[in-house]
């Protein structure tokens, strides 16, 4: 299946890869994609030319030891990029496994700006499910960037009454978090802890989601959890960085530190269903739309924290 680009999101993983230079020269990144069907390959069913389609770039095999044990995102087949050359292009070939298993027809009720969050939303949902949250818990989100606020929106869609605290040093992002449904949006540190204690009868968070990354926040994240709570590591750390925290704070109070990487088919399906049902609309997170020839501008604005979420569209400036 060949898609013509409608919108593609700039992701923190894209910024990480651009910063580290770990990918081969000439590789086209981009994986948060909504496109229009231009051509159907042999055997592709359920789509027609002109349809709007959202499609992630990874699909697990479903058969290996990792898939059989619920670790689909660790599957070697999952690591294969099924978008050629990548989402930051005006035409994208969707390889057969993604066309058959991961591509979704976008209903008229869902905008491009919402549907483009299918893949990152699935990543968030996987971490939420791995955290083991339940009604009556509270949660904290470290970082009020686009992924932190996407955690907020998904948690609010799943747990409408849950106390949710967002911690971020930027005042404007705290204000937006409040608009989007945070119970409290505070500066990191003592303010976050006090807000959580007030909202959870002194217990602390059932889960803390670190969307910033690195070892610096881990000890404080553990300190925000209740006994038996979880810290979910969602973001990349610098290569080779090691954590240092009080092991007894983990052991004696049955806390957990959980890594959560990407999102598999089950999470993709659930997030898309939330969007289609009108329970999840991430479009308020989009701060900038610009054509692909302004790619460097989008990267710069994101790195300087002057953009929350950048979407690229086809065509050139003007």
Description:
- The chain has 318 residues and is α/β, with parallel strands linked by helices.
- The chain has two domains: 2-106 and 287-313, Quinone Oxidoreductase, Chain A, domain 1 (Alpha-Beta Complex); 122-259, 3-Layer(aba) Sandwich (Rossmann fold).
- It is built from twelve helices and 14 strands.
- The chain is globular, with a radius of gyration of 19 Å.
- It starts with a strand and ends in a 5-residue tail after the last strand.
- The model has no long low-confidence stretch (mean pLDDT 95).
CATH superfamily of the largest domain, by name, is NAD(P)-binding Rossmann-like Domain
CATH topology description of the largest domain: Rossmann fold
Task: Report the mean per-residue pLDDT as an integer.
Answer: 95
- Helices, by number, come to 12
Shape: globular
Named at the architecture level, the CATH assignment of the largest domain is: 3-Layer(aba) Sandwich
| Rg over C-alpha atoms, rounded to the nearest angstrom | 19 Å
- Residue share in helix: 25-40%
Overall tally of structural domains: 2
| DSSP, total strands | 14
* Uncertain ranges: none
């Amino acid at each position: 299946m060949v898609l013509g680009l409608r919108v593609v999101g700039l992701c923190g993983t894209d910024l990480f890869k651009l910063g580290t230079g770990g990918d081969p020269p000439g590789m086209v990144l981009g994986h948060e994609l909504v496109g229009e069907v231009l051509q159907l390959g042999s055997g592709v069913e359920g789509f027609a030319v002109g349809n709007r389609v959202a499609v992630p770039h990874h699909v697990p095999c479903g058969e290996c030891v990792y898939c059989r044990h619920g670790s689909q995102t660790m599957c070697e087949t999952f690591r294969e990029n099924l978008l050629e050359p990548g989402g930051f292009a005006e035409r994208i070939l969707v390889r057969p496994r993604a066309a058959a298993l991961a591509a979704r027809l976008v209903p008229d009720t869902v905008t491009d700006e919402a549907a483009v969050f299918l893949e990152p939303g699935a990543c968030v949902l996987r971490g939420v499910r791995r955290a083991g949250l339940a009604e009556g818990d509270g949660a904290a989100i470290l970082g009020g960037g686009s992924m932190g606020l996407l955690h907020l929106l998904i948690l609010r869609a799943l747990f409408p009454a849950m106390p949710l605290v967002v911690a971020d040093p930027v005042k404007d992002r705290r204000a937006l978090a409040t608009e989007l449904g945070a119970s409290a949006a505070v500066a990191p540190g003592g303010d976050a802890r006090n807000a959580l204690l007030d909202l959870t009868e002194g217990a602390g968070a059932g889960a803390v989601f670190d969307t910033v990354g690195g070892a610096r926040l881990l000890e404080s994240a553990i300190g925000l959890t209740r006994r038996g709570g979880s810290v979910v590591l969602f973001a990349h750390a610098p290569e080779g960085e090691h954590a240092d925290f009080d092991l007894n704070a983990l052991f004696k109070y049955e806390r957990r530190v959980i890594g959560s990487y990407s999102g598999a088919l089950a999470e993709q399906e659930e997030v898309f269903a939330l969007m289609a049902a009108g329970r999840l609309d991430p479009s308020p997170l989009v701060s900038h739309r610009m054509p692909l020839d302004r790619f460097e501008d989008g990267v710069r604005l994101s790195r300087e924290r002057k953009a929350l979420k950048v979407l690229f569209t086809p065509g050139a400036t003007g």
